[in-house]
Structures are given as C-alpha cells and as structure tokens.
Protein: Homoserine dehydrogenase
Organism: Pseudaestuariivita atlantica
Amino acid sequence: MTEPLRLGIAGLGTVGVGVVRILRQKAALITERTGREIAISAVSARSRGKDRGVSIADYAWEDDPVALATRDDVDVFVELMGGEDGPAKAATEAALAAGKDVVTANKALLAHHGQPLAEVAEAAGAVLRFEAAVAGGIPVIKALTEGLAGNDITRVMGVMNGTCNYILTRMEDAGLTYDEAFAEADGLGYLEADPNLDVGGIDAGHKLALLAAIAYGTRVAFDAVELQGIGSVTIEDIRAAADMGYKIKLLGVCQMTGRGLEQRMTPCLVPAASPLGQLTGGTNMVVIEGDHVGQIVLRGAGAGEGPTASAVLSDIVDIARGTRLPTFGKPAAALTQATPAKSVAPAPFYVRLALHDKPGALAKVATALGEAGVSIDRMRQYGHEDPVAPVLIVTHKAAPDALEKALSAMAALDVVDGMPVALRIETV
Ligand SMILES: NC(=O)C1=CN([C@@H]2O[C@H](COP(=O)(O)OP(=O)(O)OC[C@H]3O[C@@H](n4cnc5c(N)ncnc54)[C@H](OP(=O)(O)O)[C@@H]3O)[C@@H](O)[C@H]2O)C=CC1
Ligand SMILES: N[C@@H](CCO)C(=O)O
C-alpha cells in the first residue's frame, strides 16, 4: 500500500472538528476508496485546552499555524481557521511555498488573494483546493471544474448564503420583521462573527466571484461584484412580493457578455413556483447553464459541520487519489483579467416608495418614470393612517440605467420621502 497521506489541520471549530470526526469514523472506508490511508499528523487552534467533543490526543499540537503548515510530517495543509488575511493567509502561503498541497474552506481568503495563491501553488507544484468554500456541502466546484469542463458556461446563478435565505424565509413564513428574523438567526448561531459578511451580501459575493473565475477562466474579481445586502428588505416587501406570486431571495448571477463579466449579488424577486422560489431555510441552490448540457440545478446544505466537512473531505480524497487540477480549472497564468460590466439587460423591477398622499402626487411619480422611459405594469397604494402612503410599482421590462434615472428623479420629488427601494425581478 502507498504511504499514508499526512494532514495538518489548522482550525478546530465547526468545520475542523467535522473533518476530524469524519476521518476518525470513516478511516477504513476512505482508505478503501483512495487506496491510501489518510492520517492526521498535527493540529492547531487558538486555545489548546478547549473541549472540542472529539479526541485530538493522538495528534501533535502546534500553537502556530505557520509552523504546522511547514512540518515535515505534513503533506496537506488543511486551513479551517477563516479570515481573509492573518494566520490563514500566512500559513497557506507558507505551506504552498514549501510545496505542500492546501485544502481550505475559506472563501474570503480566496476571493481576495485567489490569483497570487494559485500562482504560488502552481510554481511550487502544489494544488490548492476549495470545494467547501462555495455552497458548503454542494459539490459545485467539482461540477464546474470537472463535470461541465466540455461546456461554455452561459450563466451561473444561485442562493449561496444560508443565513440570508433563513432570514428571508422566516420573514415570509412566520411574518417576522427583518430585525426579529436576524435575532433568531443570531440565536441559532448562524451569523458569521461579523454579521455584515452575511446580511451585507459579502460572503455570498465572495462565493460568486470564485464560481465566475472557474466558469469564465478569469482572475477572481470580487471587487467588481455588484453587491447589495438584504438589510433594506422589509416585511412589507416580502408580503407584496408574495401577493404578486414572487419570493425575495439574495440571488447571485454571473455571466460573460460582449461588454465584459457581469457579477451581481442582490436581493431579487423570483417566481414563487420556481426552484429558487421554493428554496427555504438555510439551504443553498446553484443553477449552472452550459451550452451543451443545458441547465443543471444543485441544491443542498450550504453550511454546518457535516456538509462543510464532507466537501473538505472530497478535496482531500482527490489529493489522495492523485487528482491534481489547477486552482481555478486552468493554469493561473492563463486566467484572463475580465472587464467588469454592469448588467444592461432590461428586466421588470419592483419599486417601493413612501408617497405623501395628496392630490397629484402619484401623477408626479408616473411622470418621473415615464420621462426616464420606464413603463408601469402594476401599481398599488396600500391603506395607511399617517400622511405617507406605501406605494408599490411593478414596471414592465426596463433598462437598469433608465430605472436608476427614474429612481433619482422620484427621490427628488417633494411628494416622495427618502430614496425608493428597487429590486430586480429575475425570470429563472
Ligand atoms: N461553519 C460553516 O458552516 C462554514 C464555514 N466555512 C469556512 O470554514 C472556515 C472555518 O469556519 P468555522 O469552522 O465555522 O469557524 P469557527 O469559528 O468555528 O472555527 C475557527 C477555528 O479556527 C481557530 N482559529 C481562529 N483563529 C486562529 C488563529 N489565529 N490561530 C490558530 N487558530 C485559530 C479557532 O480556534 P479556537 O477553537 O481555539 O478558538 C477555531 O478552532 C472559515 O473560513 C469559514 O468561512 C465555509 C463553509 C461553511
Ligand atoms: N455564513 C455562511 C456560512 C457558509 O459559507 C452562510 O450563511 O451561508
């Protein structure tokens, strides 16, 4: 039998403990499947004495993740600490520079430093894998890099942040306000240490940027992702969307166009009966469209110990089997710098505004829309007690630029309070 594949695991939190647990429980099965024993040589975390619910007594301990990453008895460095910089970056760089393979679940690290890390890995003859970084347990990196390698990818979209989907689902099915649903998600331990990574759309934006790099053979361009979080979505929006047969989702879409690479992660209305509309709770869904394969829908747990550790194991098993792929599916030097493009494709939009309920007010709003070239499909003013009325408008398909112009014009009207909220209606 071949020599064991020796791991150094930095980070023994939710995901790290999950990986240790699977390796302890399924050692024989994994060896049968890979033809090679997978052994943990050493581990690292912040606090040595913590009870982690799994025995780590058999493994050497390193206080310093960089020292762990470069140990002679470590073939694969498994980075499960998190964070775009700090020890995660330092230890990953050290491992790659020492020619060791790296497996990580860290989307922030790769979204910010994916290109230089891929270059260091390839120069050192090492591989850098990150299945767990996007959509938790869903094997979406493998699907794009391997299963769909014979396709031109025409579009990738999906719900990639379970926390946001949980919050939006609870607002929809339990009638909770945004703040109540946020507090519930917090109580369940769903939120990242910095909750803005979740609700600000940043975490999902990181994931989308990684998928776009593989799908289009481009350098990771997280800074070019058009980002809008879910903080502006109200219970009234959720109810109005439901009335019209839609659900609100934090939806990521990326596609290559003649003008450049479009990447957006924004709250959108999707048909309630569509697969994305029916996605509830913390589940993720990624939809991939290829020129030959058509549409593929992948759905599953986007987070949590078991699903995320399952994805980490998939990368480790690949390395044990000798599968060696470039980080983003083609050599790092061949990845192109995409021109960022804003979406210009016309779409219907949902618009909510606060209108002073007095004669001629609605006519002024209609004029602002009309002068920007935006045509109204449906309009509804809800009953209200104070002088400011909630007004909802669904437009016919409109160019995003025209809608922006209309929104600015409406915001400048003396009969409109604040900036109207606009959400794209996505046909999926
Ligand atoms: N949780 C999930 O469902 C998912 C997580 N991920 C990603 O997986 C990675 C790990 O996440 P998760 O397990 O949830 O994180 P946790 O916060 O649960 O665990 C982080 C671990 O890293 C250790 N750690 C943190 N900082 C340091 C440091 N400076 N030096 C050494 N060890 C350190 C912590 O040590 P200690 O325990 O001693 O404090 C802890 O064991 C992140 O990149 C995350 O984005 C990806 C998909 C899903
Ligand atoms: N905070 C992330 C964890 C998984 O990446 C989510 O809610 O989806």
In short: Residues 10-16, 44-47, 50, 65, 80-82, 87, 105-107, 132-133, 136, 303-304, 308 surround NDP (ligand 1) (CB under 6 Å).
